[in-house]
Amino acid sequence: MSGKPRLTYVNGRGRMESIRWLLSAAGVEFEEIFLETREQLLKLCQDGSLLFHQLPLVEIDGMKLVQCRAILSYIAGKYNLYGKDLKERALIDMYVEGISDLMQLILVFPFSPPAAKEENLATIAEKATERYFPVFEKVLKQHGQDFLVGNRFSWADVQLMEAILAVEEKVPSVLSGFPQLQAFKTKMSNMPTIKKFLQPGSPRKPPPDEHYVATVKKIFKLN
Amino acid sequence: MSGKPVLHYANIRGRMEPIRWLLAAAGVEFEERILKTKDDLQKLRTDGFLLFQQVPMVEIDGMKLVQTRAILNYIAGKYNLYGKDLKERALIDMYVEGLADLNELILHHEFKPANEMEKDLANILDKATNRYLPVFEKVLKDHGHDFLVGNKLSKADVHLLENILWLEELKPDVLAKFPLLQSFKARMSNMPNIKKFLQPGSPKKPIVQEKDVPAVLAIFS
C-alpha cells in the first residue's frame, strides 16, 4: 500500500492519458494496472469496483473514482490547478471542454474503418486549425501571459499541451499558423514536471497501434 | 439589462435542458433567446459570441459561457449545489457524468429516424435499468438520506430527477423496480423551486414534436 494513486486501464492512451498527463504535471507519482483480458474487466465489474462498469478507474484518497472528468476535476482541485475562484474555474472548464471535443476525434480515430481514416484525419486537422487552436492563440495573444488562465499554471494548460502534441503526431505542421501556441508548447515542454513526462521511461503512453486497438476491442467487446 | 442569465439555444431540450433545470432548482430566473433558423446561429457566430462556434451559450455574470459542463459547474458552484469539499464534489461529478452518458442517449432519441426509434429506445431503457438507475437506487439505500451526496441538494439530485422524468415519458413504469428512486422522485418534485419548474408555463421544454424535427435539425446542420 504505497498511498500513491492507482490507475486501472488498458496499456495505452485512450481515456486515461489525460489523467496521466495531469498527475504528472502536478508532480504526482502513481501506479498502473493494465488489463489484458475481458475476464479481468468483468471481475472488476463483479467486485463492485466500477460504478458504471466502465474504465478508467483511479483509486485515490480512499475513493474508487470513475468518469474521466470527475477524476480530472478532483486532481485539478487537489493540486491547485483549477484557478483561484469560480470565474477562473469557469474559464478553465470552458477551455478544457473545448479541447476535449477535439481530443474525442483523436480518441476514436484509431477505431474508424480504413475507408474513413483519410476523411477523419482531415476533420481533425480542420477542427484543430479552424475551431480550437485559433481560440487559444487569441487567448494567449490578448493577455500576453504564459498560461491560459489567471497567469498561473492550470489544468487548461496541461490539456492544451496534450492536445497540441497529439494533433502534431497526426498533422506535423499544424502549429505553423500559430506562433503563440508554438511558444506555449516550448514553455510547457520546459516545465520540470512536463519535461520529465516527455522523456522516455515516463508513464506517457505511445500513440495507439494495432495491438492497442485489438486489445481494446477485445476487452470492451466492440464491433 | 435585467441582470438575469440569458440562455441562447433552440426551442428544444437538447444540451440546454440540464442548465434550465439547474437554474430553476437554484431558484434563479432567466431569459431565453430562442434560435429559430440557421441564420440565428450564424449571427451569434459572426458576432463573436460563441467561443467554439457552438451553443448552448449562457450570458451570466458578465461572461458568455459555452460548453454545457462549464456552465453547469459554474451555476452549481455559485448556488451551493456542488457539495462542501473536494471529495463531495468528486462524488457529485462522478454521478453527474454517469447521468450525462445516459442523458446523451436520451437527448438524441427524439431526433432519430422513425425506423431506428424502437431499437434506440430499447437500448436507452436497457442502459437505464441495468447500468444507471441501479447505481442511484443503491446509493440512496446505502446511506438512507434524501439526497445523493452529503445529505444536501446538489446538481447530482437535479440531474437524476431530470433523467428519471424523461425516462418516464418514454416508459411510464421505468421505475417499477426502484422503490427508493420512486420516493426520491416524489420528494424532489415537491421541493418548491422544482415544483414550480414542473408546472405548465415554466421554461421546461416539452419533448419535440415530430413535425418540428426538420426545422430544428436545420439550425444545427
Task: Describe it.
The complex is a heterodimer of chains A (223) and B (221). Chain A has helices spanning 17-25, 38-46, 68-78, 86-108, 114-143, 155-170, 179-190, 192-197, 210-220; strands spanning 6-10, 31-35, 57-60, 63-66. With 223 residues, chain A is α+β, with helices and mostly antiparallel strands. Chain A folds into 2 domains: 6-79 and 198-220, Glutaredoxin, CATH 3.40.30; 86-190, Glutathione S-transferase Yfyf (Class Pi), Chain A, domain 2 (Up-down Bundle). Chain A has a 4-stranded mixed sheet. In chain A, strand 1 (6-10), helix 1 (17-25) and strand 2 (31-35) form a beta-alpha-beta unit. The termini of chain A are far apart. The relative contact order of chain A is 0.16. With 221 residues, chain B is α+β, with helices and mostly antiparallel strands. Helices cover 56% and strands 8% of the residues of chain B. Chain B contains 9 helices and 4 strands. A 4-stranded mixed sheet of chain B has the order 2-1-3-4. In chain B, strand 3 (57-60) and strand 4 (63-66) form a beta hairpin. Chain B is globular and about 50 Å long. The two termini of chain B are 32 Å apart. At the A-B interface, strand 4, helix 3, helix 4 and helix 5 of A face strand 4, helix 3, helix 4 and helix 5 of B. Chain B: It comes from Gallus gallus. Chain B: Keywords: Transferase.
